[in-house]
Design brief:
Layout: H1 2-21, E1 46-47, H2 48-60, E2 69-71, H3 72-82, H4 88-95, E3 102-104, H5 105-119, E4 126-127
Antiparallel strand pairs: 1-4, 2-3
Helix pairs in contact: 2-5
């Protein structure tokens, strides 16, 4: 009798385990909602880092020999190719802080930081559309 009861209990447990495994599938989870965009609340404008990075990339395009610095000859050729206004030698002289006839990254960064500070009229660390040279709302300034 104990043997038969054990067999019935074992079969009952097996049936219960099988039933538990065949439960209805859970509904698929709802797709994750994207995080709220911070763009709408972000302060519009250009930071010093973006200002420097963009201009450094353009400036270093003048480094035709790839030595990590720009000579007056390279700068002049670059400005002529761009059909830039103004005297390239005068602009170069303002950037060449140590007067070694080359402008390297550190001189360029220092020059751009000063320029950024001069353009940032309200001193908020960002250049708004009205502070950026070339923007239609910006006052006409020497580039």
């Amino acid at each position: 009798m104990i043997r038969r009861t054990t067999l019935v209990v074992a079969l009952g447990l097996q049936a219960a385990a099988a039933a538990a495994q065949t439960t209805t599938p859970t509904p698929a989870a709802a797709p994750a909602q994207p995080a709220p965009s911070t763009t709408a609340t972000a302060k519009p404008g250009v930071t010093l880092e973006k200002f420097e990075a963009r201009r450094e990339k353009a400036f270093m395009a003048a480094d035709t020999d790839g030595d990590g610095k720009v000579s007056l000859a390279e700068w002049t050729a670059f400005q002529e190719k761009r059909k830039a206004k103004g005297d390239p030698a005068k602009a170069f002289a303002r950037m060449d802080a140590n007067k070694d006839r080359f402008v390297d990254k550190s001189e360029l960064d220092a020059f751009l930081a000063k320029r950024f500070a001069r353009l940032d009229k309200n001193g908020d660390g960002m250049l708004g559309a009205d502070e950026r040279p070339g923007h239609k709302t910006a006052p006409n300034q020497e580039q």
